[in-house]
Structures are given as structure tokens and as C-alpha cells.
Specification:
By secondary structure, the chain is α/β, with parallel strands linked by helices. The protein has two domains: 146 residues, Rossmann fold; 77 residues, Alpha-Beta Plaits (2-Layer Sandwich). It contains nine helices and ten strands. The strands form two sheets. It has a six-stranded parallel beta sheet with strand order 3-2-1-4-5-6, sandwiched between helices. The longest helix is centred in the middle third of the chain and has 15 residues. The protein is elongated and about 65 Å long.
Length: 239
């Protein structure tokens, strides 16, 4: 069977995506310019081969502009993913292109380059409430693989009645946060079940039983829980 998807990059994340596609019996090919990475993927049992992704003729030979339905830009360098997205989009305006970015500032560049969806490890967990791409099975695939590789967790933490946060605002909480945790927002039970995103500039007033939604590694999440559970504010938290 001809491959339906092309995975560019033979790094650990790409191999995890490839494993999921294998489990789903979806034909794919893995491509990379580095011979050592290709050999490593082959040893994992993956259909990987070496090619120059900067060569349009080589991309056409692999089915871009033909039988390939979608491309995963999974290189470790954002610049490589940007170049690949530009080239692939030029060859096939209807191609589905999903790119993983390493730095948040690279996301607009990847979208401008032609990617349909740019995924970063933190955004993917918080965006479960939205439809990221048209195929639900690909959304599930990305969530499972990105979470597994990055040790990221999305959590909901209810503010207890005794918490020092009662009556304060999101800005007070952000000033007190010293761990590597991304605060997505808060669900105010008095307003319903919608998530009020912290990035929208709303300095929401917090009350007990409000639910904080955050993303981070296991250690950071544990420290964040402990911060929320404090009865007394940490130094300098109150205005």
C-alpha cells in the first residue's frame, strides 16, 4: 500500500507517532536527511529512509503532491519545519500539514509557511476543548504521543475554602508562582462551566470552589497544588 502520511524527522517524538500509526494500520513513511537517525528508526522497525527535504523533486518522489494526504513536520529545529511546510504547501495546496514547534514564537511562522495546525506541547493539552484538526483520530494521536514524550499533565485544581487565594485575583496567583507550570485559566462555578483563559487579559477574582486549570510536568504540578492549598499567602503575594 502506498503511504498516506509522511513523517519528517526520525526523532523520539516521530517514532512515537509512527508507532501509533502502525497500531492503527495506517500506511506511512518516515523521512530524514540524517543517516544515523534513519538507521535508528529502522532498528525500531519503522519504514524510514534518507532523503533531502529541501529538494522539491525528492518530495514529489515521496508522494507530496500525489498520494500523500498529510505531512507531519516533526524536526527538532523550527527552521527546518518552516522550510518543509513552505515546500510541501507549494507542491500541494490541499495537503494537510501539522507541525510541532519547539519555541512558542515559531508558531506564527509555521502557520504563515502553510501549516494547517501548529502544535506545541503545552497548547495541545489545553486545546482539548477545541477541534484542532478535522480528523479526530489525529488529535488523539498527537495528544497521546506529545504527552508521553514531554511528561506534561493537564490538571483541574479546586480552590479550597481555607486557601489564601479566596478573594484575590489571577494576577496575585501568577506573581506567587515560581514553578514551571502554565496557568491556562479558571472555571468560575458561579458563571457556569466555561474556562476563562488567563491569556485573555481578564484579571478574574478568585473564590473558593473555583477550578484552576494548569499544565506542567509532574513535579511542577505537585508544587502548584501545594501553593493553592496554603492557608497563609507566600511572601509578597498579597497586594
Amino acid at each position: 500500500m502506498k503511504p498516506r502520511f509522511a513523517l519528517f524527522g526520525c526523532n523520539p517524538l516521530a517514532i512515537e507517532v509512527a508507532r501509533r500509526l502502525t497500531m492503527d494500520r495506517t500506511p506511512f513513511v518516515m523521512l530524514d536527511g540524517d543517516a544515523a537517525r534513519v538507521e535508528s528508526a529502522n532498528k525500531e522497525g519503522m519504514p524510514a529512509r534518507q532523503m533531502d527535504y529541501t529538494d522539491d523533486d525528492a518530495l514529489r518522489d515521496e508522494g507530496i503532491g500525489g498520494h500523500i494526504e498529510g505531512v507531519f513536520c516533526l524536526f527538532a529545529e523550527d527552521s527546518e519545519n518552516v522550510f518543509l511546510a513552505i515546500s510541501a504547501r507549494a507542491l500541494d495546496p490541499q495537503l494537510r500539514i501539522v507541525a510541532v514547534c519547539q519555541a512558542p514564537q515559531a508558531a506564527p511562522k509555521l502557520l504563515a509557511a502553510g501549516a494547517d495546525k501548529v502544535v506545541d506541547p503545552y497548547e495541545i493539552s489545553g486545546a482539548r476543548v477545541h477541534e484542532l484538526i478535522q480528523r479526530p483520530e489525529v488529535v488523539e494521536l498527537l495528544e497521546q504521543t506529545v504527552f508521553g514524550v514531554q511528561d506534561l499533565n493537564v490538571v483541574e485544581i479546586t480552590i479550597p475554602r481555607h486557601s489564601w487565594l479566596n478573594g484575590l485575583r489571577l494576577s496575585d496567583l501568577r506573581r506567587a508562582m515560581t514553578h514551571n507550570v502554565l496557568l491556562l485559566g479558571v472555571v468560575d462555578i458561579e458563571r457556569g462551566k466555561d474556562l476563562i483563559f488567563s491569556t485573555r487579559g481578564i484579571d478574574h477574582k478568585l473564590d473558593h470552589d473555583d477550578v484552576l486549570v494548569a499544565i506542567g510536568a509532574s513535579g511542577g504540578i505537585a508544587a502548584f497544588r501545594a501553593l493553592i492549598d496554603r492557608a497563609a499567602p507566600p511572601g509578597g503575594a498579597r497586594s
